[in-house]
Amino acid sequence: MQQIFQRIAWLPFVAAAAILFYAARDLPTIADPNAPASTHVSPRYIESAVAETGAANMVTAVLADYRAYDTLGETVVILTAGLACLLVLGAFTPARSGPTEKKATPYEFGSDIVDATSRLLIPFISLFAFYVVVHGHTSPGGGFQGGAICAAAIILVRLVRGRAPAFRLLPTYTVAIGSIGVLVYTGTGLVSLFFEKNFLDYSGLPLPFHGGHLREMGSLSVETGVFITVTAVMVLIFDVLTMGSEE
Amino acid sequence: MIAPIVTLFLAMMVLCAIAALQVSDLLGAVVIFGAFSFFSAIFFTLLGALDVAFTEAAIGAAITTVFFVSAIYRTHRKVT
């Protein structure tokens, strides 16, 4: 009986693929100016995004300004994912049983070549991460992207040199840093709420700027919060996954 | 003009996905999955989504590979 099921297991996949291919015929082609997505709300953003938000990169304008609520939700989701990893994996860590002959620290490559190459690369990766965040209003980038790149740099240091040289932090503290990112995000919104504007309406921020420039600064603050959260959660997941392999 | 190149990279992504499923060594599957992320990063670049592309390169090709390797080290390498 089981063999029959295994024999015909490909049938549902073929059926699903056929349905997907059939449905994909109705999708508009790439860069079609008459597609529904390009005719309803996009012209509004294209015409007024620079004047309203000061961000030439419209992706950042939509992500951090027009749809700031959604991005707040995404940031909280990322923090929750990190917390879940800490809870699930951290609970199992002390009871790691199994072959104990692999006692040597496997997360440190001892090679000098790897060490020298990473020493050459890491400053540029870190600098690029900050550039991506700060310059994300005029070039492709933003908090999520910069956070991912910065986390890649920190994880590279931890892979090559161990956990000690790269911000030796307990996972509980890393979670706290990630929460600080969400706090920066919601704090920006609460400040504008305090100055009698809507939540996350950056035109209420008490900064010496006007118009689009002020909203650009507000979304930069929000992107900084996203950057902190993404970096902390990525490093946290790596720490939790490799916990118990050192010390 | 750009359509054949996009199709080529999409085909490479499908090939990588099938290969990652077929390989019985999980470490090899992770490496093939990194190649999949690399091809999809190029694909996003061709579509003009540069920020998505380097996020995919950083997360998909680098961080996820590291996470998978750590997870494999904690469990078993071979498919049983």
Task: Write up what this structure looks like.
- By secondary structure, chain A is an all-alpha fold.
- Chain A has helices at residues 2-7, 10-24, 36-39, 42-53, 58-66, 68-92, 112-134, 143-161, 171-194, 211-241.
- Chain A contains ten helices and no strands.
- In chain A, helix 5 crosses helix 10 (211-241).
- Chain A starts with a helix and ends in a 6-residue tail after the last helix.
- By secondary structure, chain B is mainly α.
- Chain B is built from three helices and no strands.
- Chain B has helices at residues 3-22, 26-46, 50-74.
- Chain B is flat, with a radius of gyration of 14 Å.
Total DSSP helices of chain A: 10
Radius of gyration from the alpha-carbon trace of chain B, in angstroms: 14 Å
- Summing up helix and strand content along with how strands pair, one would put the structural category of chain B as mainly alpha
Secondary-structure element series of chain B: HHH
Count of distinct structural domains of chain B: 1
* Counted beta strands of chain B: 0
Unreliably modeled segments of chain B:
none
Kindly state the mean pLDDT of chain B as a whole number?
87
Structural class from helices and strands of chain A? Answer: mainly alpha
